[in-house]
Amino acid sequence: MFFPVVPMFRLIKLSIGICVALYVFAINAVFVSYGVCNTPYGLKGHCVPLSECPTLYDLVTSNLNEQVIQFLRQSYCGFDTNATVGQDKTRVCCLDNPNAEKPQAESGTILPSKGACGLTFNTRIFGGVDTELGDYPWSALIKYQRPYNATALNCAGVLINRRYVLSAAHCLRNPSIPTTWKLDSVRLGEWNISSNPDCIQTADGHSRCADPYVEVKIERIIIHDKYIPHSQSEFYDIALIRLVESVSYSDMIRPICLPTTNELRQLTFENEYADVAGWGRTEVSAYSTVKKKISLLIWHTDACVAKFETINIPVNRTLQLCAGGQPLQDTCQGDSGAPLTMRGRDMDAPYFVVGIVSFGMQPCGLESWPGIYTRVTHYIDWIVKNLED
Fold this sequence. Notes:
Layout: E1 6-13, E2 19-24, E3 36-38, E4 44-49, H1 54-61, H2 66-75, E5 76-79, H3 86-89, E6 90-95, E7 125-126, E8 129-130, E9 139-146, E10 150-159, E11 164-167, E12 182-188, E13 199-201, E14 207-209, E15 214-223, E16 239-243, H4 262-265, E17 273-278, E18 292-297, H5 301-309, E19 320-324, E20 330-331, E21 339-343, E22 351-359, E23 370-375, H6 380-385
Antiparallel strand pairs: 1-2, 3-4, 4-6, 5-6, 7-20, 8-18, 9-10, 9-12, 10-11, 11-16, 12-15, 13-14, 15-16, 17-18, 17-21, 19-23, 21-22, 22-23
């Protein structure tokens, strides 16, 4: 059956370098795919001509604001030189479920839905190994301004939605932080702090580069009201950082899931392994330039309490959890605020955050001495309560 093309179109040149001829047309009933892909939200889709993806086509023909342009740029998955018209030449990753969320300015109170958080495209750490480019895309670095225009990246955090980063309270309110240091911004999408953008060599000798990292100014910090700075116990060592503007998700910037279900909030995770990724102190240098990762065993809480009682440091079973204690494997200075993460109940499940790096023994990596982490499951209500539009 032949569908005549109405000879009306407008030509729009996007800043992403894709020139799309927009025709009024009837969609071909035959579904053409150039392979499975992931949308900017991490949901499954297929790489198809723009003309075969009504949801993205509608975006292009409606309101081309900066956020929509960024979303289209992230959806791009190829170009067909054999096609004769613009909307057939450009290939985009089209969501399999057309009822899924579309890009829009999200309220700061909205947590990512299932399937839109905890996803990494590749399946400061003492004793860890280098991550791959794109691993743990929820990792955040906290930037401080120092005198004479100097800066420091001295703490970490984890992105939980477009507007908020979860971190440790002692990173943001601590008598040990010099008074001349001022909280400045959060860096997202980082991998190697010595380069920007980050690039790797592929097996065929070509370079693959990520987008440059993004730094977003800090609008506000929310410290838990029961946190006592510089206390021996570090109870309630948790804080939220509100960014001045919403961030766009990409391969290098994605949120982690929170353990919001009743089932997860009841678990202790004892005798399970969890991952930490960061740029902190290593065996051979003060800081690692490349993001490292390590898997740590979560201790039975009673054993951890007994261990720290021997040096008169209280550990609270409800507020904290313990992980690590393997020889020369630990989180260390510079990893403070980084997330302790694990997958859901199966290998296809997304990652969620179970702990925030709080404190540990000095020197780092002492055998049989775990690190102490803020137990995130205890603070879900506090987190949700303090999210604002």
